[in-house]
Amino acid sequence: MSRGRESLWWVLLSVLLASVLTVVAVPESIRVLRPFWLALIVVYWCIEAPERFGIGFAFALGLLQDVLVGTLLGEHAFRLAIIGFIVLRFRSRLRFFPMWQQALAVAALLLNDRFVVLLLRAIAGEFAIDWRYWLAPLVGAALWPWVFLLLDDLRARGRPREP
């Protein structure tokens, strides 16, 4: 199996896992803590393989997410395209940040995403939020080191070993 095809399997597996984690039933009390899983996947793949997975990849995943959760078609696509653009713009810096700085950058990306959601909802006329709305980006940032290390380890295992 070629290296490109091999990495595509890891991308598909990570997207599938993120999609399952997005739709799995959780109690209402902790639903507000659910991070934006596909955003974490987009951030990882835009950092690690930007030549293959960029803004178009993020947009396509967003359309998948829109269909999966039943939101307005294009909402998640727009949000993930913005995240993909920002990550690609600052990729050269993000790659070499220590893990704690990467987590802070991911927190900033996810908080920016929340502001975009607020803007979209305000345009649509839905503007009621509470303080718990801001918790999910913090949970996503806290999970970032584990998501990054897990995907990095899986990707490394898939590479052919040199003699």
Fold blueprint:
Blueprint (H helix, E strand, L loop, with lengths): L2 H21 L4 H4 L5 H12 L6 H15 L5 H15 L1 H4 L4 H26 L10 H24 L5
Short recap of the structure:
The chain is an all-alpha fold and 163 residues long. The protein has one domain. The chain contains 8 helices and no strands.
Question: Any overview of this molecule?
Answer:
With 163 residues, the chain is mainly alpha-helical. It has one domain. The protein is built from 8 helices and no strands. Helix 1 packs antiparallel against helix 8 and helix 7 crosses helix 8. The longest helix has 26 residues. The radius of gyration is 16 Å and the shape is globular. 26% of the residues are buried.
How many angstroms does the end-to-end distance come to? 18 Å
The H-and-E topology, N to C, reads as HHHHHHHH
The total of helices stands at 8
- Main pleated sheet: none
Mean pLDDT over the residues: 90
What does the overall shape look like?
globular
Q: Which regions are unreliable across 5 or more consecutive residues at pLDDT < 50? A: none
Quote the beta fraction: under 5%
Pick out its properties.
mainly alpha, 163 residues, 8 helices, globular
